[in-house]
Amino acid sequence: MSRNERLIDLLKLREAMRARRQAHAVGELANEIDRAKTMQDKLRGLIKANTPLDEPMTPFALRSRAWYGRQMQEQHDLLENRSSFLEAEIVQARKVLMRHKNRENILEQRRVAVKQAEVEDREALAERQMPPSGPKPKR
After folding, report:
1. What would the pLDDT profile of 15-37 be if each residue is shown by its tens digit?
2. Long-range contacts: 77-84, Cβ < 8 Å, 24+?
3. 60: exposed, middle or buried (C-beta count within 10 Å: 0-12, 13-18, 19+)?
4. In this structure, are residues 32 and 86 in contact, taking their beta carbons and an 8 Å threshold?
5. Helices (H), the chain
6. What is the pLDDT at residue 14?
C-alpha cells in the first residue's frame, strides 16, 4: 500500500467515524422527537379530561381546573415548539450525515483510482526494464 493510498484510507476512516457519530446524533434526535410526541399525546388526553363538564362546580374547583388547564396548555405548546425545533434539527443532521457518506464514497473512488494508477506505473516500469522483443539485428 503506497503512501497516497494509505493517506486516502485514513481520510476515509475519519469520514466513516464522523458519519457514525452523526448517525448516532440523528438517532438521539429521533428518540427525543418520539418522547416529545408521546408527551404531547398524554397532555392532549389530560386537557380533554380537564374540560368543564355540564355539572355544577364550586368556584374553587372551577378556578383550580382553569389553572391546571392553562398549565397543561402551556406545556403542550412548549412541547409543540420543541418538536418543530427538533424536526428542523434532524433535517440538518441528516444533511450532514449524507455529506459525510458522500465524502466517504468519493475517497473510496480516489483510493481505487490511486491503486489503479500505481499498478499501471509498476507494469509500465516492468515493461521498460524488459529487453526489446523485436527481431534481432543481423550482423
Report:
1. 999 999 999 999 999 999 999 99
2. 79/36, 79/39, 79/40, 79/43, 80/40, 82/36, 83/33, 83/36, 83/37, 83/40
3. exposed
4. yes
5. 3-50, 59-129
6. 94
